[in-house]
Amino acid sequence: MKQVQVYHIDAFTDVSFGGNPAGVIPNAENLKVEEMQKIANELNLPESAFLLPSSHPNADFKVRYFTPLEEINFCGHATVGLSWLLGTKYNWLDKAEQVVFETNAGLIPVKWIKENNQLIGVSMTQIKPKVKEIEIDKGSIAQLLGIQASDLDERHPIKLSNTGNWHLLVPVKSREAIDHAEPQLKKLGSLNREHNISTTHLFTFDTDGEFDIYTRDFAPGIGIDEDPVTGAANGALAGYLFLEGFLPKNQTSQLKIGQGHAIGRPGTLYITITPKNNEPIIEVAGSAVITIEGKINLL
Question: Which CATH superfamily, name and number, covers 2-111+288-298?
Answer without folding.
Answer: Diaminopimelate Epimerase; Chain A, domain 1 (3.10.310.10)
